[in-house]
Amino acid sequence: MEEIDRKVEEFLQVFKKGEEFTKNLLAENERLRFRVAELEEAFSRSGDSAKENVFQERIKIYENELKSLRERFAQVEEENKDFAARYVEVEQENNNLANLYVASYQLHSTLDFGEVLRIVLEIIINLVGAERFGIYLLEEKTNELEPVAAEGMSVEGLPRVMLDEGLVGRTCKSGESFFREDISSPGSPVDPIACIPLKIKEHVLGAIVIYSLLRQKEKFSHVDYELFNLLAGHAATAIFASRLYTQSERKLTTIQGFLDLLKEKPRK
């Protein structure tokens, strides 16, 4: 019974506090209404000049708010453009990485020398966008760069180049790739727009020499340089391995033929 009485008392105390709070709130509300009425009466009694000042002040406030909203909107719009550009860039990089992976895989998918050269030609056409170019290999006995494949021109039309002779020879001698700054005009066999040495570590095996790009391609892109770096190493390794394999196959075939001749029984 005492517990119930205590709870009832607590409830009454809470109710009284609520009642007191309500009374205070009503009193404050009444005071504010009275103040609003005073302001409205003062405003109605004021002249046109005072009213105009009030309106101009309000207009300034609204104009500042509008300006702030426009600036914020422009900032958000700029951020959206930046995000969209970055998304496109990331998407392009993903495509480029996929292309580089496919190119690397294709280069090492065969040991046939002719097939490796064909793959290198396709990579340069499809991924770089080259129109006229040639592939040179170094004959170490003569220190001469010999054309072995070409696109957009005949292999026979490409000159042999001595190492350290002319732009192509000097580029292969140094081992550093060359890119002409202005590629608006096509190059020639003695004046290419790009020359990329094919090398394994510091040992140069040959070069990819580009004379012109496709019409829709105005310049080399970032991914082109990445692709040239890949070709400089991976294409050189694939060509070297396939060349050795082809030479070994020929030697084995010749030796096998010679052994077969020795095994033949002499006719009586």
Report what the structure shows.
It is a single chain. This protein has 268 residues and is α+β, with helices and mostly antiparallel strands. The protein folds into three domains: 2-44; 46-107; 111-254, Beta-Lactamase, CATH 3.30.450.40. It has five helices and six strands, in the order H-H-H-E-E-E-H-E-E-E-H. The protein has a six-stranded antiparallel beta sheet with strand order 3-2-1-6-5-4, with helices on both faces. Helix 2 runs antiparallel to helix 3 (113-128) and helix 2 (48-107) packs parallel to helix 5. It is elongated and about 125 Å long. The mean pLDDT is 78.
Key structural traits:
6 strands, Beta-Lactamase, single chain, 5 helices, alpha+beta, 268 residues, 15% strand, 6-stranded antiparallel β-sheet, 3 domains
Distance between the termini: 138 Å
Query: How much helical structure, as a percent, in the residues?
Result: 55-70%
Largest sheet: 6 strands, antiparallel
H-E string: HHHEEEHEEEH
Widest sheet, order of strands: 3-2-1-6-5-4
CATH topology of the largest domain: Beta-Lactamase
Query: Which word captures the global form?
Result: elongated
Average predicted local confidence, pLDDT = 78
Hey, roughly how much beta strand do the residues contain?
5-15%
Our count of domains comes out at 3
The CATH architecture term of the largest domain is: 2-Layer Sandwich
Oligomer: single chain
**What low-confidence regions span 5 or more consecutive residues with pLDDT below 50?**
none
